Automatic annotation (TrEMBL), chain A:
Residues annotated as domain SCP2: 37-127
SUPFAM superfamilies, per the entry: SCP-like (SSF55718)
Top-level taxon in the UniProt lineage: Bacteria
Species for this entry: Shinella granuli
InterPro entries (alphabetical): SCP2_sterol-bd_dom (IPR003033), SCP2_sterol-bd_dom_sf (IPR036527)
Xref: Pfam families: SCP2
Protein name: Putative lipid carrier protein YhbT
UniProtKB/TrEMBL annotation, chain B:
Record flagged with keyword Cell division: no
Record bears the keyword 4Fe-4S: yes
GO molecular function: 4 iron, 4 sulfur cluster binding; metal ion binding; peptidase activity
HAMAP family, alphabetized: UbiU
Protein name: Ubiquinone biosynthesis protein UbiU
Reported cofactor(s): [4Fe-4S] cluster
Annotated pathway: Cofactor biosynthesis; ubiquinone biosynthesis
Family: Belongs to the peptidase U32 family. UbiU subfamily.
TrEMBL record, chain C:
Cofactor(s) it depends on: [4Fe-4S] cluster
Listed InterPro entries: Peptidase_U32, RNA/ubiquinone_mod_enzymes, UbiV
Quaternary context: Forms a heterodimer with UbiU.
Source taxon at top rank: Bacteria
Binding annotation for [4Fe-4S] cluster: C46, C179, C192, C196
Pathway(s) annotated for this protein in UniProt: Cofactor biosynthesis; ubiquinone biosynthesis
Family: Belongs to the peptidase U32 family. UbiV subfamily.
Species annotation: Shinella granuli
Any single GO BP term: ubiquinone biosynthetic process
Keyword annotations from UniProtKB, A to Z: 4Fe-4S, Hydrolase, Iron, Iron-sulfur, Metal-binding, Protease, Ubiquinone biosynthesis
Function: Required for O(2)-independent ubiquinone (coenzyme Q) biosynthesis. Together with UbiU, is essential for the C6-hydroxylation reaction in the oxygen-independent ubiquinone biosynthesis pathway.
Name of this protein: Ubiquinone biosynthesis protein UbiV
Keyword Chloroplast in annotation: no
Family matches, as PANTHER family: PEPTIDASE U32 FAMILY, UBIQUINONE BIOSYNTHESIS PROTEIN UBIV
C-alpha cells in the first residue's frame, strides 16, 4: 500500500491547522470553479457532508459541496454523512479519477462508512470532471506555477508507482 | 469482432473512443437504463455531444434503454427513445416488449438491439424478436456455453453480441428479483442491483459485515479483502455449511476464448462496466483492443494486466464453460 | 374474458421436484377437493426433471378435466439446449390444451394461437401486455415483483383482458444456468443426481447472521417467505382482476384454496384467513412487500396499508 514518505508527513503534522486549511480551501474552491458540471452530476448529494480521512496524515477534511465549505480538523473524525478513509495518495488519485475506486475498495485499501450512495455519487461525479490536482495546485502558486505543478506531478508519479491500477 | 465499450460519463465515453472502441454504449441519467446509479450517465446535451464526438472518430453509439417501463409512466421511456433516435444513436438497446414495439413501429429504420435483460437464450426466442420487432442484434444472456453459442448463431438471422469482460450476473439477466426482494429496488424496474442506498458496512468485533437492506451479505475477517455486497456474490449458510452459495466474488473474463467466440459466429464482444471509472474503461478497452488483434501467445501478458482490475482479483469464464454449471 | 364478478382461482405449476407418485396424488386431490377453476401444470424449472412427472401427466389431466378444471400446460422457464427447444416446440405443436409461455421461445411459437403468459415472462406495463395479446395471449399472470399501482394501471388500460396475480407461495425470484442447489451438495448441474428432490419445499438459505432469506429449488432461487395477498385482493378485484394464482407448496393446498375462495366470496375476512393460513403452512413467514412497493420480503398488514392510502 503506498503511503506518504515520513519526510512529507512531518511538516503537515507540525503545520498550523489554519495554514493547511487555507491551502486546501484554495484548492477546493479552484476545483469547484473549474468544474461546475460536478454539481449537476452530484444532484441532491451536493448537500451531503463528506469526510475524507487520510490514514497517513493526522488530519480529517470535511466538505459540503453545496455550501462550498471545507474544514480541516485533528483528532477524532468529525460527524459526517459519508466518510472515506485511505492513504492520501489514493484519495487524491480517486479525486482525479486516476485510480479505479472499485478495484481499490475491493482490495480494502479504502474504506467507506455512512451513506454509500452519496460516496458513489461523488466518485462518479469526480470521475467525469477530469481534475488535475498538480495543475490546480500550480494555478494557486502564481509565478511559481510550473515549478509547483511539475513537483506535484513528480510526487504523484512516485506515489502511485508500482500499482497495477495506475494510468499515466 | 466489434468491441462494444461502456461509458457511465462523458469522460469515460471519450476514453473509450480514444482507446479503440468500435461502439460505445451508454444511457440517460434516469430509470430508463439498467445502470441507474447516482452521479452516472448522460444528460440529453451530454449524449448529443458524445455522439458527435463518436461520429468524428467513426465510432458508433448505442443507447441503452434497457429497463422495463413502469406502468403509467411509459412516456419517460418513449421520450428517451424519441430523443436517442433524434440524436442519431446508431442503435437502441431495449429489453421491454412494449418499448420494442413502439420503436419498431415509429422508427422502422432505427437499428434495434435486444438487451441482455430480455434473456433471449435460444433460436426460437431470437426468431421471435426478429419477427416481432425487427431486432438486428441480440446480446446473449450469460447462461450459454461457447458451444451453445456456436450452435445458436447457425440457426438465426440476427447478429449476436456477448459479454467478454467485467461484472458477471450469476442469474439469467432481466429475470432476477433478488435485489428487490431485499431492498425494493430492482434491475428491471429501477435500473439498480444491490443499490448503494441500501448498503451498509458494520464492524462486528474483528469482522467487517456487509449488509444489503436488512440482510447480511458477507463477513470479512481482519485483513481479508472485502467486497461490495452484491447479493448473488454473498456468503450464506445452507444447512450447516457457510459459503458462496451462488458465486464467488469473481468477474467475467473470456479473453482466452476470443478465437472460439469468433469461430462461433459472434459479431461483437461487450465489456461490462458503465459504473466503473474512466481509468478502468481506458485500460480495459485498450487492452482488449490489443488482445483482439494479438496472437494467442501475445495475449497472456495483456490478460495478466487486466486481471488485476477485476473484483477480488479473481475471474471466471462463467457459463461459457460447461463445468461452471 | 370479461371481468365480471368474482375472480377465478388458479393453481400454478409445482415448481419443486416431487417424485412421480407424490406429484400425481397431489393433483388427484386437487381434482377431487380443491376450489380452483384453472390448473397450470408441467415441469417449468428444470428440463432434467421432466421424466418424474411425465408418466403421470395424462392421468392427472384426465382427472382434473373430469372434475371440471380447465387445464393449461406450462413451458420451461429457461431454454438453452436443443433438447429443451425441441420439448417446447413439441409441447406447443401437439398440445390439445392451452399452453402457458414462460420464456421467449414459447412466445414466438405460440403466435396466433390462444395461450397464457406465465409470471416468469417480463410483463411490466400495458404496452407489453397489448403486444402479447395481439399475438394471441388471453391471460397474463403478472410477475410477483409488480406493485399494486402497476397492476391497477394495467387493469384500467385493458379492462376486457384477463390478468392474474401471483397471490400465494414462495416467489420465484431468479433462475440461473448454474444449479446452486446441486452445488450446495458438492455436485454440478450436469451430474446433479436430482438432489433437489430431497427438499420438496425448497432448500433454505440463511445469512451468516442466521436470518431466513431464500430457498433454493434447483436452478431457481425463491423467496423464503411465502407471498400471501389474500388480504390485499379486494381493490384489485374491484379494478377488474380476473384470476388469483396459488403456487403449490408442500402444504395442504386444498385448504389454502378454500381459504382464498372464502375470502373472495366475502364469507370470511382476510385477517381470519391469514391466521388460518399460518396453521396450514406453519413455520413460514408471509410477505406482500412487492405489492406495496417495498422490499419483497416485507409484510404490510392491512391496518398499515389503509393508513398508507391506496397503494
Amino acid at each position: 500500500m503506498p503511503s506518504l514518505p515520513p519526510l512529507l508527513v512531518k511538516p503537515v503534522d507540525l503545520a498550523p491547522l489554519w495554514l493547511v486549511e487555507r491551502v486546501a480551501r484554495h484548492l477546493f474552491s479552484g476545483v469547484l470553479k473549474a468544474h461546475p458540471d460536478l454539481f449537476e452530476r452530484l444532484g441532491a448529494y451536493r448537500e451531503t457532508c463528506y469526510g475524507f480521512s487520510p490514514v497517513d496524515l493526522p488530519l480529517h477534511f470535511t466538505v459540503v459541496p453545496a455550501m462550498k465549505t471545507l474544514a480541516v480538523s485533528r483528532g477524532a473524525p468529525p460527524l459526517v454523512d459519508a466518510r472515506i478513509e485511505g492513504p492520501l495518495v489514493l484519495l487524491l488519485g480517486l479525486l482525479e479519477g486516476r485510480c479505479d475506486a472499485d478495484a481499490l475498495f475491493f482490495s480494502r485499501d479504502l474504506s467507506v462508512t455512512g451513506d454509500m450512495e452519496a460516496m458513489l455519487a461523488l466518485r462518479n461525479a469526480l470521475d467525469d470532471s477530469a481534475i488535475d490536482l498538480p495543475r490546480e495546485l500550480g494555478a494557486l502558486a502564481g509565478p511559481f506555477s510550473p515549478l509547483v505543478a511539475g513537483t506535484a506531478r513528480y510526487i504523484r508519479g512516485k506515489a502511485l508507482e508500482g500499482r497495477d491500477a495506475t494510468w499515466n | 469482432m466489434e468491441l462494444i465499450c461502456p461509458a457511465g460519463t462523458p469522460a469515460a465515453f471519450r476514453e473509450a473512443v480514444e482507446a479503440g472502441a468500435d461502439a460505445v454504449y451508454c444511457g440517460f441519467r434516469d430509470e430508463t437504463n439498467a445502470r441507474n446509479f447516482p452521479g452516472l450517465n448522460f444528460s440529453r446535451e451530454e449524449l448529443r455531444q458524445s455522439i458527435a464526438l463518436a461520429r468524428r472518430k467513426k465510432v458508433q453509439t448505442f443507447v441503452a434503454l434497457n429497463t422495463f417501463m413502469r406502468a403509467g409512466d411509459e412516456a419517460l421511456w418513449y421520450s428517451a427513445a424519441d430523443d436517442a433516435v433524434a440524436m442519431g444513436a446508431d442503435a437502441l438497446i431495449l429489453a421491454d416488449f412494449g418499448l420494442m414495439a413502439y420503436v419498431a413501429e415509429k422508427y422502422p429504420q432505427q437499428r434495434l438491439h435486444v438487451s441482455v435483460q430480455a434473456s433471449a437464450s435460444n433460436p426460437e426466442a431470437i426468431r421471435f424478436l426478429v419477427e416481432a420487432f425487427g431486432a438486428k442484434r441480440v446480446v446473449l444472456p450469460r447462461v450459454l456455453t461457447v458451444q451453445d453459442i456456436a450452435r445458436l448463431t447457425r440457426q438465426i438471422d440476427c447478429e449476436v453480441e456477448v459479454f467478454a469482460f467485467g461484472g458477471l450476473c450469476v442469474m439469467a439477466e432481466g429475470r432476477c428479483s433478488l435485489s428487490s426482494y431485499a431492498t425494493g429496488k430492482s434491475p428491471n424496474m429501477n435500473g439498480v442491483c444491490s443499490p448503494a442506498s441500501h448498503v451498509r458496512y458494520r464492524q462486528d468485533g474483528a469482522d467487517l459485515v456487509s449488509e444489503l437492506g436488512a440482510y447480511t451479505i458477507n463477513r470479512f475477517g481482519p485483513g481479508e479483502a472485502s467486497g461490495y455486497p452484491t447479493l448473488c456474490k454473498g456468503r450464506f449458510e445452507i444447512g450447516d455449511v457457510e459459503g458462496y452459495a451462488f458465486e464467488d466474488p469473481v468477474s467475467l473474463d473470456v479473453i482466452d476464448e476470443i478465437d472460439a467466440l469468433r469461430a462461433a459466429g459472434v459479431s461483437a464482444l461487450k465489456i461490462e462496466g458503465r459504473q466503473r471509472g474512466k481509468a478502468y474503461v481506458a485500460e480495459v478497452v485498450s487492452s482488449l483492443k490489443k488482445a483482439l488483434g494479438a496472437s494467442p501467445g501475445e495475449r497472456a501478458a495483456l490478460v495478466a494486466r487486466l486481471r488485476a482490475m477485476s473484483e477480488g482479483q479473481r475471474t471466471t469464464t462463467g457459463a461459457y464453460d460447461k463445468r461452471w454449471r | 374474458m370479461a371481468t365480471t364478478g368474482k375472480p377465478a382461482l388458479s393453481l400454478g405449476p409445482v415448481y419443486f421436484l416431487w417424485d412421480g407418485p407424490k406429484w400425481r396424488d397431489f393433483y388427484f386431490r386437487i381434482a377431487d377437493e380443491a376450489a380452483v377453476e384453472h390448473v397450470t401444470l408441467g415441469e417449468t424449472v428444470c428440463s432434467k426433471r421432466q421424466h418424474f412427472s411425465e408418466p403421470h401427466v395424462a392421468e392427472v389431466v384426465e382427472r382434473l378435466e373430469a372434475a371440471g378444471k380447465r387445464v393449461t400446460l406450462s413451458t420451461l422457464a429457461m431454454v438453452t439446449l436443443p433438447r429443451e427447444s425441441r420439448h417446447v416446440r413439441d409441447l406447443i405443436a401437439d398440445s390439445l390444451h392451452p399452453v402457458e409461455a414462460n420464456d421467449l421461445s414459447a412466445l414466438g411459437l405460440l403466435k396466433g394461437r390462444p395461450h397464457s403468459i406465465g409470471p416468469l415472462v417480463n410483463v411490466y406495463n400495458a404496452a407489453t401486455a397489448r403486444t402479447l395479446a395481439a399475438r394471441g395471449a388471453e391471460n397474463i399472470c403478472l410477475p410477483p415483483e409488480l406493485p399494486a399501482g402497476s397492476i391497477r394501471q394495467m387493469l384500467e388500460a385493458m379492462p376486457d383482458f384477463s390478468f392474474e396475480v401471483f397471490a400465494f407461495g414462495r416467489m420465484p425470484l431468479a433462475i440461473s444456468a448454474r444449479c446452486a442447489h446441486a452445488r450446495s451438495k458438492g455436485l454440478t448441474k450436469d451430474n446433479c443426481q436430482f438432489v433437489c428432490g430431497e427438499e420438496p419445499d425448497g432448500l433454505p438459505l440463511r445469512t451468516l447472521d442466521r436470518q431466513s432469506f431464500l430457498v433454493l429449488n434447483g436452478v431457481q432461487t425463491m423467496s423464503n417467505s411465502c407471498v400471501v395477498l389474500v388480504d390485499d385482493l379486494a381493490p384489485l378485484v374491484e379494478a377488474g382482476l380476473s384470476r388469483v394464482r396459488l403456487s403449490p407448496q408442500d402444504c395442504d393446498m386444498v385448504k389454502v384454496a378454500s381459504l382464498y375462495r372464502r375470502v373472495l366470496d366475502g364469507r370470511i375476512d382476510g385477517e381470519e384467513a391469514i391466521a388460518d393460513l399460518a396453521k396450514v403452512y406453519p413455520g413460514v413467514r408471509f410477505s406482500n412487500g412487492f405489492l406495496h412497493r417495498q422490499e419483497g420480503a416485507a409484510w404490510v398488514s392491512r391496518g398499515r396499508n389503509a393508513a398508507m392510502g391506496r397503494d
